[in-house]
Amino acid sequence: MIEFLSSYYLYALVFVVLGIGIYMVIASENLVKKLIGVNLFQTAIFLFFIAMAYVEGGSAPVVPAEKNPGDLLVASPLPQVIVLTAIVVGIALTAVGLALIIRIYAEYGTLREDTLREVRADE
Amino acid sequence: MSSVDLLPPLLIVAPLLAATLPIALGLRYDRAGWSVAALTTTGLFAAVVALATVVYTDGVVTHELGGYPQTYGIQLVADEFSVLIALLVTAVAAGVLVYTRRGGPRGNTFYTAYLLLVGGLLGITMTGDVFNLFVFLEITSIATYALVASGDGPESAVAALQYLILGTVAASMYLIGVAFLLMATGTLNMLELAAQIPAAERPLLIRTGFGFIVVGFAVKVAQWPLHTWQPSAYQQAPDGVTPLIAALVSTASAYAFGRLIVTVFGVDYLAGTQNAAAIVLVVGCVSVLAGTVLAVIQTSVKRMLAYSSVSQFGLVIAAYGVVIAGGSETAFVGAAIHLLGHGLLKAGLFLSAALVATSYGARTVDEYAGLAKHRPVVAGAMAVLLLSLVGVPPGVGFVGKWYIALGAVQSELWPVAAVIFLSTMLTLAYAARLLEKMYFTPPAVETPRPGAAATDGGTTDADGAIRGEGAADAVSVGMVAVVVIAALCAVALGFAGGAIADLLEPFLTEVFN
User: Fold this and answer.
1) Burial group, residue A41, by CB count within 10 angstroms (0-12, 13-18, 19+)
2) Distance CA B124, CA B485 (A)
3) What is the DSSP string of B143-177?
4) Residue B196 has what pLDDT?
5) Which residues contact B402 (CB under 8 A, 6 or more apart)?
6) Which of A42, A80, A93, A111 is the best substitution to test chain B (most B C-beta atoms within 10 A)?
7) φ and ψ of B500, to 5 deg
8) I need a surface site. Which of B7, B50, B168, B349 has the fewest CB within 10 A?
């Protein structure tokens, strides 16, 4: 177990963060906190990608002016590019979500989901 | 490079670029949005038809974006399966536009979201790269959230937020699945993945990835019990938007799931994977039954149709299960036809529901009483669409169900065949309820109905128009025509089952060899 954790601790950490994120989405009654939970969930996935690309002893994937750049040990650039795209997508989603929350708050005057449910049931 | 190779990227880029125009031109002209959208979608439809003729005569068209090889570049692929869905997407998008010209929602921002949605959907159909698929899924989703939220009243914002949270978690689940696939194989291209997955050193990673992908798509396609976002999203969206998202958004996700099953993981590989077929089958079958039962007990017509989508997509997912379990080509053809047919039927049904709400002021099943007398054309078209949804031949709903059931029987999966039969009965239960109201129940009272107008969140006939006479001039000929055309297409496509199967033949032989 200890040995497993010492070599795979990053993955373990990522999945703990993933769990915290999804727990926030499910358990928190506050809409903003729910959205933060979604963000945490996504961030954990980004970290997962980055962790996967890490190469022990590898350098940054910038090709230097060497004779045989192919022999260099570098981290895989593909997941990093992917994560950049995914971050942009995540920001767009957060923006739309916050805009909706502002509208809900303006209409119902509450950010709590349980109160919201009561208010809507009354109508 | 011949010019046909340029069509797939053009199909995605054109709507995304055109999406900026309604807002830019809107600074100068108030009503530029509709013209831009109409021009773009008509052009897209023509382009897809041109692409389809090439694909169905000469085979697959691929395009490597930026000239990067498929190992690390992004590939766009138009094959027999994806072109079929692209045809549906552009046809429905163009049809719905005919409705929105008079029926609304109006405004330039609406058409911007509309074009973004179309671009995202075409991206889902064309992409040959699993990560790119995620990006397009999210583009589609963001546009859908915005469109759902554009409805009147605060309820639509709540529905959109609910959809956003569930949809984002679902897409993230899919992304985790992609991460596991990348970890196991080191590639994101669908064809490369297909080649590497059977030989992967750590099959556990691929199985985990498949599990996450199934959960992700189960939410996106609205499978029970992960469907909770869908009925309120469909109900709260503006009347002109529901046909579009109901017909296309989940269809594109279901298409993507099928694509991953047959092209990326491969039927043979999944058949050898423990429980993969069982999980997909159970998710599909349970959704079929739960969706129809929930549809039967609804009072609002839009909500009823939304729950009906849960069951109809359950049928498609169940068909995928049959494909995995039995390697059945027939079930796959059934799934493809059902995706196409259901998209068309739901677009038609939601359009007619919108039409009825505008002209007749009816939103619940009870209020549909006497519709056939006052609005014979719409009622007739709706009846044809409903019967086709149940699976009465020669409607297109029958053909899809028939192929799926045939595939289930051929693979000796009797429970699936039983579920399909049972769901047909239950579908008849809610369809017949509506038909009975429309044709055999006289309208309750011909009086102004202030109470009804207040409870359903503000219908368009605000000045207390008399039932049956209400706001008839809000309905243009085009709006009625598009519903009638949908009904005619539903019947015409019913005869085209064999032709569609023939068109898919090259794709099937490549996948099931």
Assistant:
1) buried
2) 26
3) HHHHHHHTSSSTHHHHHHHHHHHHHHHHHHHHHHH
4) 84
5) B334, B391, B497
6) A93
7) -65, -40
8) B50
Spatial distance between the Cα atoms of B353 and B300, rounded to a whole number of angstroms: 10
- Report the C-alpha gap between B293 and B299 in whole angstroms: 13
* B361 token code pair: 């002021």
More reliable by pLDDT, B460 or B128: B128
Q: For residue B293, give the amino acid letter.
A: V
Q: What is the DSSP letter of B488?
A: H
Distance CA B68, CA B78 (A): 18
Structure tokens at B330: 């027939």
Q: Indicate whether B324 pLDDT > 80.
A: yes
pLDDT at A70: 66
Find the residue in B nearest to A52 (Cα): B183
Q: What distance in Å separates the CA atoms of residue B293 and residue B179, rounded to the nearest whole number?
A: 37
The Cα–Cα gap between B295 and A8 comes to: 47
3-state secondary structure B280-336: HHHHHHHHHHHHHHHHHCCCEHHHHHHHHHHHHHHHHHHHHHHHHHHCCHHHHHHHH
pLDDT tens profile B443-479: 765 544 444 444 444 444 444 444 444 445 567 777 7
The DSSP code sequence of B427-486 is HHHHHHHHHHHHHHSPPS--S--HHHHHHTT--S-TT-PPTTTTTGGGS-HHHHHHHHHH
For the stretch B32-90, pLDDT in tens is 778 888 888 888 898 888 888 888 888 788 888 887 887 777 888 888 888 889 988 99
Predicted model pTM: 0.88
Of A54, A49, A53, A52, the closest CA to residue A85 belongs to A49
Give the model's pLDDT for residue A40: 92
* CB-nearest partner of B160 from A52, A100, A116: A100
Determine how many CB atoms are found less than 10 A away from the CB of residue A70: 7
Which of B169, B173, B192 should one mutate to test binding to chain A, selecting the residue with the greatest count of A CBs within 10 A? B169
B225: chain A residues, CB-CB within 8 Å: none
pLDDT in tens, B256-308: 999 898 888 888 888 888 788 888 888 888 888 888 888 888 888 888 888 88
